[in-house]
Amino acid sequence: MIAIGFIGAGKMASAIINGLDKDKFNIQISGRTLDTTQKTAHTLGIKAAASHTELIESSDIVVLAVKPHIIPSILAAYQINKPLVSIAAGMTLSDLEALTTSKQPLIRVMPNINATIQKSTTGITRNTNVSDSTFATVTAIFESIGSVHELAEKDFGTFTALAGSSPAYIYMFIDAMSRAGVLHGMPKDVSTKIVAETVLASAEMLLSSDLNPWTLVDNVSSPGGTTVAGVVSLEQNNFVATVIDAITATVDKNKAMSN
Ligand SMILES: NC(=O)c1ccc[n+]([C@@H]2O[C@H](COP(=O)([O-])OP(=O)(O)OC[C@H]3O[C@@H](n4cnc5c(N)ncnc54)[C@H](OP(=O)(O)O)[C@@H]3O)[C@@H](O)[C@H]2O)c1
Question: How many domains, the chain?
Fold first, then answer.
């Protein structure tokens, strides 16, 4: 059985561990304090390591699941001679390489908040020290909590906007539509549920078909009908350009924060 050790056991580590098959993976955690680590381990049904050193020695793969600013001190204090996975937002493979030896196998992973319901859309990349079998194992770990996309590292910033930040924009869209439902006389909770279900089913429809989104828009828009009136109104109010601007602002902010 593959042993996975998580250094840091907060929200994201707990979400990942909740999705992992405990019969397939031997999982342990090591947090900031032993007392809290033991409580978290008990809740998650896994083992608490007595120390980071014990965890590193007994793991095949180590996942760094602490906030990015904590990582340099951990990598300075501990020699992690195992494949190392980082889920730290904004921390590149080069940043991690600067903190480790030249032989360190490094995998950078970016899950999103939907990991909490085992539906993360996750980006993954690796340095040249990572074997194909280790990469396949780490990919399988993150497939336990959703879908995984191997990316060129240069695309991580864009991925972070499209998958990491976009849930916020999607919630804004859902809220705007349900508010419109309220304007036209429907209770907010009913309206929100209807819109959320429609967004979910529309995404499923798109993923299950070979059609591109605009063809699906055309399919719903009958000539002279109600839907095309709304489509034209969205276009007149710069819907597409507004969304693209929001993603560009997110990508630009990510770049500025990484420099
Ligand atoms: N949350 C997300 O949606 C999301 C998405 C993608 C990536 N990420 C990345 O995931 C990582 C973890 O984020 P999170 O949201 O899970 O944060 P979190 O809930 O704050 O978890 C971080 C954990 O690290 C622990 N910790 C602090 N110092 C430590 C140390 N020296 N050794 C071991 N553990 C230590 C903290 O313990 P204390 O609370 O006791 O300090 C806390 O339990 C971050 O790098 C973040 O960028 C998060």
Answer: 2
